[in-house]
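Step 1: inspect the first sequence and its C-alpha cells.
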Amino acid sequence: VEILYVEADEDHIALQSGKNAMPRLVYIHEGIDMQGRRKLKLPYYLASLKGKSGDLWQEVYEYLEDNYEIDKIKQIYLSGDGAAWIRQGLNYLPNAKFVLDKYHMSKYVTKATAHMKEYGPKIWKCIKEADLEELGLVFNELHFATENESKQRQMKESWGYLSNNWDGIKIRNEESDNIVGCSAEGHNSHILAARMSSRPMGWSKDGADKMARLRAFKANNGKVIDFMKAQKKEVKLYTATKQLMKITSEGLKSKINDNPCNLEVFKIGRITGLYRALKAI
C-alpha cells in the first residue's frame, strides 16, 4: 500500500502502590472501509505498559517490516493527541507526518470558549484556514474580554495546546483528501479502559503490562486457548532441543575420547575454527 495510518492513545490506571500508570495502545490500519458499517481496513493492535515508549514503536516498525513493502509506502499519517510519546513514533515510522486528532482539537476549543461561545466559530475559522497569526489575535481578544482568572488560565492552556500542535493541524488541512478520522479515543476505551480502568482496580505493573498485551491480542482476533497451546508447544520444543543438544554433546565427547580421527574435520588436514573448537573439547 502507498498510504498507512497509525493511531495512538493511552489509558490511565491505578497501581496497587497508590501511583498511576499509562498503558499505551498503538494500532495500524489501511483506511476506512465504507461498505456497510464503517470499519477500519486490516487493523492491527499493539499495547504495553512496561519499558520505554521507544520499545513499543520498535514493535510497530517490526510489524510494518514483516507485513508491508516499506519502500513502497509513500506516506504514514500518525494521529493522536500530540503527547510526547506519540510524537516519538515519527522517529521510527518511515515517511511519517503527525496529524492532531479532531477530538482533542474540539476539546480545547470548547475549553477556551465555554464562557463566550461566540468566539468558537472564529477559532474554528482560523483552524480551517491554518492561520496561526489570526488565531493568536482571536485568543488575545478573548483573553482581554475575560475577567475570570480561572477562565484565563484555561484559555492560556488551550492556546498553548493548539499552537504547540500546529504542525498536526496544518497537515490535516493541507492533505485532507488523504486523511481519515482518528478513532484512538474510542479504541482505547473499548480495548484497554473497558477492562483496566472503567471500574476501580489496583494493578501491579507486571499484571497491567500483560493484560494490556492480552487485550491487544484479543482485538487482533487471537484466541487465548490457541495462544496457550502455542506457548506449551514452544516449551516442549525448547526442552526437546536442549535434551538433543545434551545427548549430541555427550556423544561427541565420547567419540573424540575414543578416537578423534573418526571426525571428518580432523581428516581434512586444515586448522579451522571448528577444528580448534573441537580440539578444545
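Step 2: inspect the second sequence and its C-alpha cells, then contrast the two.
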Amino acid sequence: MVRLVHIHRSQPRFGEVATDPICELLHTYHPHLSIDIAPLDPTIAPPLRPLYDVVIMPVLGYDSSGNRLGMGAGWYDRLLVAQPQAYRIGLAYTELRLSAIPIEAHDQQLDRIIAA
C-alpha cells in the first residue's frame, strides 16, 4: 500500500510538467497519503529518510528503456540510490522522447514515464 509520495515542485521556467494538479488529485482521491512536495535544490543532499513508496520527478528527455535526462546535477540519481524501494515515475512532455539516452554508471532508470 502506498503511504508516502515524494513529488517535485515543478519549475515552469525549465519547461517541466506542472505538478500542482497531480498533488491536488492525489490529495483529493487518496487523503491517506503523505505527500512531500519538494522544490529541487541541487545544493541540498537528497533525503535518506523517510522511505518513499513513490518518487515522481521531472524529465527533460527520456527513452523507451526508462532512461532520463534531468538538469545534470544528479540529485534524483542520488535520491533513487537512497530510496531503492520506491516506484520511480518521471513526468515529461511527449515531444521530449528520444531514441536513446546516453547513460553513465550512476544514472538510475525509471519504472514508468508519464508523457503529457
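Step 3: confirm your contrast with the notes below.
The two ends are 26 Å apart (CA to CA). The CA atoms of residues 79 and 88 lie 11 Å apart.
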